[in-house]
Write a structure and sequence with these properties.
With 94 residues, the protein is mainly alpha-helical. It is built from two helices and no strands. InterPro entries: DUF2281 (IPR018739).
């Protein structure tokens, strides 16, 4: 019979954990085995992606932003908030 895994499973021998996992999977129906395989692949991909993202993020040097680099390059028209001529038919006069 499959024993329940307690919170101290990390301290157990890895081989014993593998054996217990294989024993539990062996008695499961085929549908559950397929679901477990899908989930295992998902976890492996998630773990691999998170590790690679962590490596990329820690290795990428970050540049400090400098305020005022675009000063004078961006402007806004004085009548920015004014109604558009094309929309006069749709505006309600107050």
């Amino acid at each position: 019979m499959v024993q329940s895994i307690d919170s101290n499973y990390k301290s157990q021998n890895i081989d014993a954990l593998d054996t217990e996992l294989f024993r539990a999977i062996a008695i499961m129906p085929q549908e559950i085995k397929v679901a477990i395989l899908d989930y295992a692949e998902y976890l492996i991909n998630k773990h691999t992606q998170s590790n690679s993202l962590a490596i990329i993020q820690t290795q990428t040097p970050t540049k400090k932003r400098q305020a005022g680099l675009l000063k004078g390059k961006i402007w806004m028209a004085d009548d920015f908030d004014a109604p558009l001529e094309d929309m006069k038919d749709y505006l309600i006069e107050c």
